Amino acid sequence: MGASAADLWPYVTMDQTQWQSITKRYWPGQLTLVVPSSSNVPLQMHPKTPDTIGVRVPDHPIARQLLTLTGPLATTSANISGQPALMTIEEVLTQFPQICGLNDDALRSVLELLAPHTVVPTPSGLPSTVAAWQSDHWETIRQGTVHL
Known about the structure:
Elements: H1 5-8, H2 16-26, E1 31-36, E2 52-55, H3 61-70, H4 89-95, H5 104-114, E3 129-133, E4 138-142
Parallel strand pairs: 1-3
Antiparallel strand pairs: 1-2, 3-4
């Protein structure tokens, strides 16, 4: 994940014009693009498919602010594959008791510090749409909130 599409370009080998129109339309948002990866992506990040990488710019203001501070990060979903989406931090902490986290009130306080007066989108409960580049078109791998 990155704070902007430009943050992710160094990790992608396809021409920016091939994915600029889709990123301008859907990012930030719930669209993950599987694209040809560059040599900047460590093999440990994708040992089963070393020629591609999934990239996304999230639509959550705290996530983007953190990504602005850290640079792009390798991330994963906050739920177990195949299980329902976790809609609150309390649900995340219940499913993953081994991690530390902030409750919703603490998250609102952090948001006010990081991005004052920003409206936090309500989670849809649906996964991101995943689309893969197939030499001349996008193929939807998993349908989520974005319809291509």
